[in-house]
Amino acid sequence: REPWTADDLPKPLEPEAGREVQFCPILGLPIVPALRVRALPGFHVLSLDAGREAMARGSYEAFGEKFPCHNLEYLHPEDKVFTCAEDNKSFLNEMSMRYHRYMGHELKERKAERKRLRDRAEERKVRSAAHQAAQLQQ
């Protein structure tokens, strides 16, 4: 028999959506599911120790920003957590995360794009009027 290759080895199972291993954004360590909290109003999942410290200070620094911490929501070990890829906020069900992404990110992007297009149209309109005025003077 030929030597084994990497394809012969059993493949690791992909974690179920919402049950991926999470890392504390403050401590940088894996979070034990039984010892995790969600900081409010930041909606970030933290380890219990980091959450208690953030609560005592009234804020925490994560993902390059400072967030207020007024309360902690203790998560059950079996709770699934869905994290937004854009701002790392965590939600307890996928629909809440999708709604957040739509309202907080997609609509803002669409609104900014519409504003950009309106501004460009206004610029073209002004340039066209200036060009017509120049044509009439000649």
* Count of alpha and pi helical runs: 2
Going across the biggest sheet, name each strand in turn. 2-1-4-3
- Which runs of at least 5 residues are low in confidence (pLDDT < 50)? none
Q: Span from first to last CA?
A: 90 Å
Strand proportion? 15-25%
Entry summary:
This protein has helices spanning about 50-55, 95-135, and strands at about 35-40, 45, 60, 65-75, 80-85, 90.
Describe the structure.
- This protein has 138 residues and is an alpha+beta fold.
- Helices cover 39% and strands 20% of the residues.
- It has two helices and six strands; from the N terminus they run ββαββββα.
- The protein has helices spanning 48-57, 94-137, and strands at residues 36-41, 44-47, 59-62, 65-74, 82-83, 90-91.
- The strands form two sheets. Strands 2-1-4-3 form a four-stranded antiparallel β-sheet, with helices on one face. Strands 5-6 form a two-stranded antiparallel sheet.
- Strand 1 (36-41) and strand 2 form a beta hairpin.
- The radius of gyration is 25 Å and the shape is flat.
- The model has no long low-confidence stretch (mean pLDDT 91).
